[in-house]
Amino acid sequence: MILPNGAHVAVVDGEKLVLFENIGHTDIQLKAKPTPEIEDRVAGAPGRNSSAANPDNDTQAEDGFAMGVADVLNHMVLTHRIEKLLVIAAPKTLGQLRKGWHKETEASLVGEIAKDLAGHTTDQIATAIQNA
Q1: What confidence tens digit (pLDDT) does each residue in 73-123 have?
Q2: C-alpha Rg value of the chain to the nearest Å
Q3: Fold designation for 8-131
Q4: Are 24 and 129 in contact (CB under 8 A)?
Q5: pTM tops 0.90, yes or no
Q6: In the chain, what percentage of residues exceed pLDDT 70?
Q7: Burial readout 41-79 (b: 16 or more C-beta within 10 A, e: otherwise)
Q8: Handedness of CA 41, 44, 47, 52 (dihedral sign)
Q9: Domain spans of the chain?
Q10: Is the confidence at residue 58, as pLDDT, over 70?
Protein backbone atom coordinates (compact mmCIF):
# COMPACT_ATOMS: atom_id res chain seq x y z
CA MET A 1 0.00 0.00 0.00
CA ILE A 2 1.19 3.49 -0.77
CA LEU A 3 0.59 5.77 2.22
CA PRO A 4 0.43 9.48 1.38
CA ASN A 5 2.73 11.88 3.18
CA GLY A 6 0.88 13.48 6.08
CA ALA A 7 -1.60 10.62 6.41
CA HIS A 8 -2.44 9.60 9.95
CA VAL A 9 -2.44 5.98 11.02
CA ALA A 10 -4.68 4.81 13.86
CA VAL A 11 -3.74 1.44 15.35
CA VAL A 12 -6.59 0.18 17.50
CA ASP A 13 -7.61 -2.86 19.48
CA GLY A 14 -10.31 -3.22 22.11
CA GLU A 15 -8.26 -1.41 24.76
CA LYS A 16 -5.65 0.76 23.08
CA LEU A 17 -5.29 3.49 20.45
CA VAL A 18 -1.93 4.55 19.04
CA LEU A 19 -1.67 7.36 16.47
CA PHE A 20 1.08 7.98 13.94
CA GLU A 21 1.70 10.39 11.08
CA ASN A 22 3.51 9.35 7.94
CA ILE A 23 6.37 11.81 7.44
CA GLY A 24 7.95 9.84 4.59
CA HIS A 25 7.65 10.96 1.00
CA THR A 26 8.65 7.84 -0.95
CA ASP A 27 8.68 5.34 1.92
CA ILE A 28 6.64 4.94 5.08
CA GLN A 29 8.15 6.71 8.08
CA LEU A 30 5.80 6.75 11.04
CA LYS A 31 6.09 9.43 13.70
CA ALA A 32 4.20 8.85 16.95
CA LYS A 33 1.51 11.40 17.77
CA PRO A 34 -0.01 12.13 21.19
CA THR A 35 -2.83 9.76 22.06
CA PRO A 36 -6.06 11.64 22.73
CA GLU A 37 -8.22 10.89 25.73
CA ILE A 38 -10.81 8.23 24.89
CA GLU A 39 -14.13 8.49 26.66
CA ASP A 40 -15.33 5.04 27.65
CA ARG A 41 -18.83 4.29 26.50
CA VAL A 42 -20.92 1.83 28.45
CA ALA A 43 -21.91 -0.05 25.31
CA GLY A 44 -21.15 -0.21 21.61
CA ALA A 45 -23.16 1.23 18.75
CA PRO A 46 -26.30 3.22 19.57
CA GLY A 47 -29.32 1.00 20.00
CA ARG A 48 -27.20 -2.07 20.65
CA ASN A 49 -25.54 -3.37 23.75
CA SER A 50 -22.73 -5.18 21.98
CA SER A 51 -21.73 -7.08 18.89
CA ALA A 52 -22.38 -10.41 20.61
CA ALA A 53 -25.78 -11.93 21.36
CA ASN A 54 -24.94 -12.39 25.06
CA PRO A 55 -22.08 -9.98 25.68
CA ASP A 56 -19.89 -10.27 28.71
CA ASN A 57 -18.45 -7.21 30.43
CA ASP A 58 -15.17 -7.42 28.48
CA THR A 59 -16.98 -7.47 25.14
CA GLN A 60 -19.12 -4.49 26.12
CA ALA A 61 -16.04 -2.59 27.30
CA GLU A 62 -14.17 -3.30 24.04
CA ASP A 63 -17.15 -2.27 21.93
CA GLY A 64 -17.58 0.88 24.01
CA PHE A 65 -13.89 1.71 23.64
CA ALA A 66 -14.13 1.29 19.86
CA MET A 67 -17.07 3.69 19.73
CA GLY A 68 -15.09 6.17 21.86
CA VAL A 69 -12.20 5.90 19.38
CA ALA A 70 -14.62 6.50 16.49
CA ASP A 71 -15.88 9.63 18.26
CA VAL A 72 -12.33 10.95 18.75
CA LEU A 73 -11.27 10.24 15.16
CA ASN A 74 -14.50 11.80 13.85
CA HIS A 75 -13.75 14.94 15.88
CA MET A 76 -10.17 15.09 14.59
CA VAL A 77 -11.38 14.80 10.99
CA LEU A 78 -14.17 17.35 11.44
CA THR A 79 -11.75 19.86 13.02
CA HIS A 80 -9.28 19.31 10.16
CA ARG A 81 -6.54 17.82 12.35
CA ILE A 82 -6.69 14.70 10.15
CA GLU A 83 -7.15 14.87 6.39
CA LYS A 84 -6.14 11.33 5.40
CA LEU A 85 -6.58 8.35 7.68
CA LEU A 86 -5.48 4.72 7.60
CA VAL A 87 -7.05 2.51 10.26
CA ILE A 88 -5.41 -0.70 11.42
CA ALA A 89 -7.59 -2.61 13.84
CA ALA A 90 -8.44 -6.08 15.02
CA PRO A 91 -11.29 -7.32 12.77
CA LYS A 92 -13.98 -7.14 15.48
CA THR A 93 -12.84 -3.67 16.55
CA LEU A 94 -12.76 -2.49 12.93
CA GLY A 95 -16.38 -3.58 12.57
CA GLN A 96 -17.37 -1.52 15.60
CA LEU A 97 -15.40 1.48 14.35
CA ARG A 98 -17.19 1.39 10.99
CA LYS A 99 -20.54 1.67 12.78
CA GLY A 100 -19.41 4.96 14.33
CA TRP A 101 -17.78 6.72 11.38
CA HIS A 102 -19.05 10.13 10.38
CA LYS A 103 -19.46 10.53 6.60
CA GLU A 104 -16.47 12.93 6.57
CA THR A 105 -14.34 10.33 8.36
CA GLU A 106 -15.37 7.70 5.82
CA ALA A 107 -14.35 10.10 3.05
CA SER A 108 -10.94 10.70 4.65
CA LEU A 109 -10.09 6.98 4.82
CA VAL A 110 -7.22 5.98 2.55
CA GLY A 111 -7.44 2.38 3.73
CA GLU A 112 -8.24 -0.14 6.41
CA ILE A 113 -6.22 -3.13 7.54
CA ALA A 114 -8.10 -5.75 9.56
CA LYS A 115 -5.22 -6.94 11.71
CA ASP A 116 -4.36 -6.64 15.40
CA LEU A 117 -1.07 -4.72 15.43
CA ALA A 118 -1.54 -2.95 18.76
CA GLY A 119 1.57 -3.52 20.81
CA HIS A 120 3.77 -4.04 17.73
CA THR A 121 6.78 -1.88 16.96
CA THR A 122 6.63 1.07 14.60
CA ASP A 123 8.78 -0.86 12.09
CA GLN A 124 6.41 -3.85 12.19
CA ILE A 125 3.44 -1.55 11.60
CA ALA A 126 5.20 0.19 8.68
CA THR A 127 6.03 -3.20 7.15
CA ALA A 128 2.40 -4.34 7.48
CA ILE A 129 1.26 -1.18 5.70
CA GLN A 130 3.78 -1.67 2.88
CA ASN A 131 2.66 -5.28 2.44
CA ALA A 132 -1.07 -4.46 2.46
Answers
A1: 999 999 999 999 999 999 999 999 999 999 999 999 999 999 999 989 999
A2: 14
A3: Nucleotidyltransferase; domain 5 (3.30.420)
A4: no
A5: no
A6: 85
A7: bebbbeeebbbeeebeeebbbbbbbbbbbbbbbbebbee
A8: negative
A9: 8-131
A10: no
